[in-house]
Amino acid sequence: MVGAYVETLHNTSRNARIVLVLSAVMGLSIDGGIYSVIFNLYLLRLNFGPEFVGQINSVANLTFAFGSLAAGWLGMRYGNRRVMIVGMGIALIGALALPLGEQAPQAARGLWLTVTLLLAYLGLALYFVNSGPFLIRVTPIGARGAIFAVQSAISGLASFAGGLIGGMLPALVAIWMKVSMTQPAPFRIPLLLVGLLMVGALFLVLQTKEPEADEAEPEVLEAKPGAPRPRSAASLILFMSIVRFLQVAGVGVAVTFFNVYMDAGLHVATPTIGVIAAVARLLAVPAALLGPLLARRIGYGEAAVFGSLGAALSLLPLALIPNPAAAGFGFIGLLAFTAIRYPTFYVYIMERTPPRLRASMTGAGEMAAGFSFALISLLGGLLIVQYGYAVAFWLGAIVTLAGTALFAIYVWRQRRRPTVITPPPVQETTIIPPLVGQPALEKDGQDEKEI
Q: Which domains does the chain have, with CATH numbers?
């Protein structure tokens, strides 16, 4: 299996390899690595409580949501690569400016942190919404499952390293600066490191090139069960956005409040929180690489349902057992199942979306995810203050189960729908691509696996 993935990387395009390296840099820094461990703890050290943590994350995710909708339109109009570059530049400005909020007057500190975080999230929306369609465009159809699994694995490994770094750096900085871990300064330095890593990410995205003519995919949708006609594509985008809104609620509440819960609720040391977060990211790597193998056996849609269900159930230890070990176990399971759900879900919906509308589908999906994260962050912060952490985790689990059920019904109905393929004209030679989820789909990577 590993050899097949290595071969996939060897045969992929330069553009695709750059995007994979970018996934590593983003995973290490701002997309699950150092940032995910440090940021909320930094807010606590600045004397902000769980309610403000929920509010600032909610506003940031709303910005991501609206930015994602605009990013899809901008990608269609100006091209994915250009919007990726602009987005990375904006994210860089926000990431570098955010840690300077500690120097602002107390009355303006919350505003500074909010505005700079919004810039970072707006830039991330522009980048992520267009990086997926860009990677799809520069990857052959038969290798997509494998390349997105590799991307998820690389991001997971980088996030593992970032989690370890984020957990250890504050203690090391505190020793170096001779200050207490209750002060914000030991947490400011890792956040500045995130900004510096974003400089490298901007340099990398500038190294990409517009796809060559033979690299771009024809404007023809593959014949797969559930592939919509042009007039029904809008309804598919709307439906999948609703599914995404519901599915990611559990991830949203855990990513936002897990470290706050461990720190303020269970009084776990910061290095321990970093180790747990890092282990969770590391175990998500084999989960991501096993996703395509599962998808080839049961189908991409069914694999996504399995991952979503597992993510919802993983929240139960956090909701039921107020214990660091139980919370860590639930968080690790959540990220592992999410590593299965995201790439299989993404490939499933992209192969049912006309190529010219993929940026719109991605933008609408990321907007829905942003709204979900924003709402769950806001409600979670309020519920935690009034009723405790368990209620917030219960809410995430229930909403995720609702999204899982809705998507499962759709996948089941598509499985039952007969596939009608119109024979090509006699004078043309047409190759009908295989059905989604069948072994022939990844014939080139029979040993490989499918973020």
A: 8-208 (1.20.1250.20), 231-416 (1.20.1250.20)
